C-alpha cells in the first residue's frame, strides 16, 4: 500500500484487516527530519484480542505532538478456542509479527535517524514484545533508537511479583502455545501491569490458588484495561500498578513448588490432566456469575473441563 510522506494531517483508520495505517501530527514549522518525510519518532502500535485495528491507541494518537507519527499494525487478533474465533493464537501472533517486522524495517531503512517505539496491548503485547526481543538480538536498528511499551503482556518476565500467564501455565491446546517469559537485552522496554490482571500478573495456582483466582476475576472485572499512552513512556523496567484484591488472598505457600509451566510444559497429556484439576479448584473460588464465562479464558479451556 502506498504511504504518503511529509507533513500530513492524521487520516481515518481503515478498518480492513491486513492494512497498515499511518497518521502524523501536523507542525507549523517542520524540522529537517519532517521536511524530508520522516517523523522524529514513529510509534508502532499493536492492539489486543479482537482489536486488530489497534483502536485502543486512538485517544493517545489524537494528542501526539508535532514530529511524532504512528503506524497501526492490522492483524486478525484472534485466540481460538475463544467463542467465535477461528484463528489460533499462534497463527494470529505470527501474522502480526510478520507485518510488524516488515513495517519497522522498512521505516528504519527510509528514516535511519528516527526514533522507534514499539508498543502492544495484551495479545498485541505478545507481538510487540516478540519483535523487541528479536531486535535486541541483532543490530539492524541501533538499540539506542528503540524503546518498547507493553501493556498487560502475557509474557511479562517476573520482577515485582509473578510474571505473565505464558510463563505460569503450560500449553494445553495445540495452537495456543505458552512460550514462557522473554527478555529484551539492553533495549529499554517498559512493562506496565495491573496487580489484579491475571494475564500479566499470574500467581502460581499450585502455591496460591486464591491469588490465581484473583487474576482471573480481575481479568473479567476490568483490571486488564490500561491508560494507553506510549509516547509518554521513555524508560524501561517493570511497573506493577498496585490494586486492592478482587479475591482476598495471602502470599504463596512457603513450599518449593515450580509453576505448572515449569513442571508440565511440553507434556501435553499430563498438562491437560493437571490443568483440569486446577480448573476445577478454580471454579470453586470464582463468583457464581463468572463460572459460566471461563470459556472466555481460553488458557484454561482444557478438554473435559466443566463450566465451559
From TrEMBL:
Q: Does the keyword Hydrolase apply?
A: yes
What keywords tag this UniProt record? Disulfide bond, Hydrolase, Secreted, Serine esterase, Signal
One Gene Ontology CC term in the entry: extracellular region
Record localization: Secreted
Domain of life assignment: Bacteria
SMART domains in the record: Cutinase
Among SUPFAM superfamilies, the record links this protein to: alpha/beta-Hydrolases (SSF53474)
On whether Glycosyltransferase is a keyword of this UniProt record, the answer is no
Please name the top-level EC class of this enzyme: hydrolase
Write one Gene Ontology MF term: carboxylic ester hydrolase activity
Q: What is its EC number?
A: 3.1.1.-
Q: Which InterPro entries match?
A: AB_hydrolase_fold, Cutinase/axe, CUTINASE_1
Report the main location listed first in the record: secreted
Signal peptide range in chain numbering:
1-27
Q: Which family does it belong to?
A: Belongs to the cutinase family.
Q: Which PANTHER family match?
A: CUTINASE 4, CUTINASE RV1984C-RELATED-RELATED
Q: What does this protein do?
A: Catalyzes the hydrolysis of complex carboxylic polyesters found in the cell wall of plants. Degrades cutin, a macromolecule that forms the structure of the plant cuticle.
Q: Report what the protein is called.
A: Cutinase
* Lineage start: Bacteria, Bacillati, Actinomycetota, Actinomycetes, Kitasatosporales
Amino acid at each position: 500500500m502506498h504511504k504518503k510522506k511529509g507533513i500530513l494531517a492524521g487520516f481515518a483508520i481503515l478498518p480492513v484487516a491486513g492494512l497498515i495505517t499511518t497518521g502524523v501530527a501536523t507542525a507549523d514549522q517542520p524540522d529537517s527530519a519532517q521536511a524530508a518525510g520522516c517523523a522524529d519518532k514513529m510509534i508502532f502500535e499493536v492492539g489486543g484480542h479482537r482489536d486488530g485495528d489497534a483502536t485502543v491507541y486512538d485517544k493517545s494518537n489524537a494528542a501526539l505532538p508535532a514530529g511524532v507519527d504512528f503506524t497501526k499494525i492490522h492483524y486478525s487478533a484472534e485466540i481460538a478456542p475463544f467463542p467465535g474465533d477461528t484463528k489460533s493464537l499462534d497463527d494470529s501472533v505470527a501474522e502480526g509479527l510478520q507485518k510488524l517486522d516488515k513495517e519497522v524495517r522498512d521505516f528504519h531503512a527510509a528514516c535511519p535517524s528516527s526514533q522507534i517505539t514499539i508498543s502492544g496491548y495484551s495479545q498485541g503485547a505478545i507481538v510487540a514484545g516478540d519483535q523487541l526481543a528479536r531486535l535486541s538480538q541483532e543490530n539492524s536498528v541501533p538499540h539506542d533508537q528503540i524503546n518498547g511499551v507493553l501493556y498487560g503482556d502475557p509474557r511479562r518476565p517476573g520482577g515485582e511479583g509473578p510474571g505473565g500467564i505464558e510463563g505460569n501455565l503450560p500449553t494445553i491446546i495445540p495452537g495456543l502455545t505458552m512460550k514462557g517469559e522473554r527478555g529484551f537485552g539492553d533495549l529499554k522496554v517498559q512493562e506496565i501491569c495491573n496487580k489484579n490482571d491475571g494475564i500479566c500478573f499470574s500467581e502460581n495456582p499450585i502455591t496460591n490458588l486464591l491469588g490465581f483466582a484473583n487474576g482471573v476475576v480481575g481479568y473479567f472485572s476490568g483490571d486488564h484495561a490500561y491508560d494507553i499512552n506510549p509516547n509518554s513512556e521513555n524508560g524501561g523496567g517493570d511497573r506493577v500498578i498496585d490494586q486492592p484484591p478482587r479475591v482476598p488472598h495471602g502470599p504463596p505457600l512457603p513450599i518449593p513448588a515450580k509453576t505448572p509451566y515449569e513442571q508440565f510444559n511440553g507434556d501435553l497429556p499430563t498438562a491437560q490432566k493437571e490443568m483440569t484439576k486446577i480448573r476445577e479448584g478454580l471454579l470453586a473460588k470464582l463468583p457464581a456469575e463468572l463460572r459460566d464465562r471461563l470459556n472466555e479464558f481460553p488458557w484454561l479451556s482444557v478438554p473435559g473441563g466443566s463450566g465451559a
